[in-house]
Amino acid sequence: MTDFADQLCVVTGAASGLGAAVATLLAGRGANLLLVDINEAAGTRLAKKLGGDFLCADVSRPEDWQRIATHCTTLGGVRYLHLNAGIQIAPPSAPLDEYRFQNMQIDRYRRMMGVNVDGVVLGLSHLLPVMQPGGGVVVTASLAGVTPYEVDPLYAMSKHAVVGLVRSLAGHCASLGLTISAICPGGIDTAIIPAAQRSQAALMTPEHVAEEVLTLMAPAENGKTWAKVAEHKPAWIIRAPGDKG
Hints:
single chain, alpha/beta, Rossmann fold
C-alpha cells in the first residue's frame, strides 16, 4: 500500500464527487492536501473538514495554474497529483437533446474543452516540474474515452484526448521518476451526470472509484489506461494497439 503520510497530494475538482472522495481517502491516510476547485464555498468547507489547504482556481486558466504551482513550491513540491476536474457539454438539468453534436453551443464547447483538456495539459505543464521523483499522476478520463458515447460525442472526444496524452507521456514521466495513469470509470453518481440518464444506468459511488485512484498513484505499469465499470469488479488495463504488456 502506498504511503501517503505527510506527502503533498493535489486534487482538482476536489469540492465534490470523485475529487472529494479521493481527498477524503487521502486525508485518512495522513496526506497533506491541496484541494483545487472553482467552487470556493464547497472547497473551503471540505478543506477545513479534512485539515488541508484550498485554492479557488479555474483549471482552464494558465494564470491560475501558475498560482497553484507557486503554492506547491512553497510547500516543498508535489508527490501525488489527481487531475480530476471535468464537465459535460451541457448542464445536468438540460434535456439530452442539448448534449447532441448537432445542438452544440460554441460557448459550452469551449468551456468543456477548457476544463477537460486544457485543465489536464496546463496542470501537467505547471506541476510536473515541481513533482518529487517517486510520485504519481492520475488523470480522470472516462469509459467514454475508450468507447463511443452517443449521448455526448464532444465529451467523448475530450476524454479520448486525455487518454492519448497519458499514454504518450509515459516515457517523459518515467524520465522524471514519475508514473502517470488514466482512470476510465463508467457512470459515477456525481453532479455531472445528466438527470435524464440517472434512471438508465447503474451508477458507482465515488468512494469505490476513489480506492482505484489511490492504487494508481503507484501503478504496476506506467502510462496505462484503466477501466472501472462496476463496484464489485477491479479496474483493468485497456491496452493501446501494439501494447502487449
